[in-house]
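Backbone description:
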Amino acid sequence: RFEEDGFPVAVQKTVWYNQKEAAKVLGVAWLGAEEDALKVGFQAPSVPPTTRRSVLAMLNSLYDPLGFLLELSMKGRLIMRKIATYDWDTILPKDLCTEAADWMKEVQKAAEITKVPRLVDCKNLLVYVDASRYAWGVDVRSPEAIRVVARGGLFDKEKFAKWSIVS
């Protein structure tokens, strides 16, 4: 029915737990039965970003739904917040371009070396939660310090100015 209405339907894909070849499952790279680990996807642009549009495209090229590189993802969101006042195609100041290019290099290195086991014993989990004036984060790890999942976000700029624990 979907194909009749013009929606493309993906061909069924089967991934076996014991296959040797790497595969993508729901967009997350699995390295195959030999390593049996998950990997973050990041496709860096060939040219360092110089506009708000190109910085956003670069930030969105980091696909990390489980939050393995949460710290770098949050750093990228803070960079985007800094450049939010610029027009989409205006060349950014040199310091912001340098910061974005440095972020890109950091993520490239981290994405290359970060491998997380597919199977983690979840009998005992450690949950860390923290927040600041600008952001919040949750980190779930196994007792062996393997990150299982992490989430984080930035607080709304206007709202956090009103918050206080002092009355």
